[in-house]
Structures are given as structure tokens and as C-alpha cells.
Design brief:
Blueprint (H helix, E strand, L loop, with lengths): L4 H4 L3 H10 L2 E7 L5 E7 L1 E2 L5 E6 L3 H8 L2 E8 L7 E12 L2 H15 L25 E15 L4
Antiparallel strand pairs: 1-2, 1-5, 3-4, 4-7, 5-6, 6-7
């Protein structure tokens, strides 16, 4: 029997739609002992197609990603089996320790979770260092550059 794998893959547009509408990304980094470290994170897709989230600069995932830049993330949706769809993305992670950039990503994540993300005209680049939220100095950005996508949509079966 031929594989149905290709039949259930999401298109590029469907993947982008998932990444712009789903709210939680399961983030996997590699612990020092080789075991996976998983954490759910709120995230955004930036204008350049990269995926970004913020987290505390001293967190385990940051320690892991600074040691090994490989990362895998998953987002999915659906309750009944025939509704389940998702995308798993392998990539490289860049840790950005720059408070102005962190504040910008924090603002974009906030817009996404307040259902205002469609309004990309809101200025997210205007923060001056003296206007940054205190959390921008404790948090860092993880910017993911995707290298491989795997996706599924059980509704296509």
C-alpha cells in the first residue's frame, strides 16, 4: 500500500496560517546529558519568516541553546482525530541579548495574544531604552531559522 504521507502534508500557506494563528509552540532543546528539554512558549512569526519567542536569559533552554543551537518546535491543533493538524520544525536558534529587540518581540507576542496581530501597522520599533519594560532586561529573544518542516492534517485522510 502506498504511503499517504504526502497526502496529509500541509501546504506552505497552511503552515504559515498555523504559525500565525496558533498560540503555543512546544520548544525542544537538548540538555547537557542528551535528554530533551521541552517547554511551551508563546511565539510570533517575524517579517523575515523566522520564529521568535522570549524567555528568561538564565533559563535552562537558553543554557541549552547557547551550548547547542539545534532546536525543534511543534505547534498543533484539533481535538478529534480527524481535526488534528500540526507542524514540526527543525532549525537553528540564535539567542539575542538586546533589550530593545526583546521589547519588540514581547510587544508582538502581546498583540498576537490580544488578537490584534493583524494590525502590523502598530509601531514596534519605537521603544527608547528608557521606555523599555523592565522584563526586557531579564528576558532574551530566541530567533529560530527553520531548516526542515514536517506537517500533517488528519482532515485530509
Amino acid at each position: 500500500m502506498p504511503s499517504r504521507r504526502n497526502a496529509i502534508e500541509l501546504t506552505k500557506d497552511e503552515i504559515l496560517e498555523m504559525l500565525t494563528t496558533e498560540r503555543v509552540l512546544q520548544v525542544a532543546s537538548i540538555n547537557p546529558d542528551g535528554t530533551p528539554h521541552l517547554a511551551p512558549m508563546w511565539f510570533v512569526v517575524d517579517d523575515d519568516g523566522s520564529i521568535s519567542f522570549t524567555t528568561y536569559g538564565k533559563s535552562q533552554k537558553i543554557k541549552n541553546l547557547e551550548r547547542d543551537h539545534r532546536i525543534t518546535v511543534v505547534t498543533d491543533a484539533g481535538h478529534a482525530y480527524n481535526e488534528v493538524k500540526g507542524v514540526s520544525i527543525d532549525g537553528t536558534a540564535e539567542v539575542i541579548r538586546e533589550p530593545t529587540h526583546t521589547a519588540r518581540i514581547m510587544k508582538l507576542v502581546g498583540l498576537k495574544h490580544s488578537d490584534q496581530m493583524t494590525n502590523r501597522t502598530i509601531d514596534t520599533n519605537s521603544d527608547r531604552d528608557d521606555d523599555l519594560p523592565p522584563a526586557a532586561y531579564k528576558r532574551v529573544v530566541v530567533k529560530i531559522t527553520p531548516t526542515r518542516f514536517r506537517s500533517w492534517d488528519h482532515g485530509k485522510i
